[in-house]
Design a protein that fits this description.
Number of helices: 2
Order of helices and strands: EEEEHH
Strand order of the largest sheet: 1-2
Radius of gyration: 11 Å
Strand content: 25-35%
Helix content: 25-40%
Number of domains: 1
Structural class: alpha+beta
Distance between the termini: 18 Å
Length: 62
């Protein structure tokens, strides 16, 4: 997920902001690139992406 008007991305696992140009860990899911602060966060996402995406979708609807 991208923060509006910046090169900063949102790590969907730990909610940390990561700078797109400096990011080391990235994973594509359903045609969308997701960025992570660490290998551990990327691995958790890859093991169960819907868990993290559904959590943020529910949060955005509140």
């Amino acid at each position: 997920m991208q923060m509006k008007g910046s090169g900063t991305r949102f790590d969907p696992v730990c909610d940390m902001n990561v700078t797109e140009r400096d990011v080391t860990y990235k994973s594509d899911y359903k045609g969308i690139a997701y960025y992570f602060c660490s290998y551990e966060c990327m691995k958790k996402f890859q093991d169960n992406p819907e868990k993290y995406l559904s959590f943020h979708e529910k949060e955005a609807k509140v």
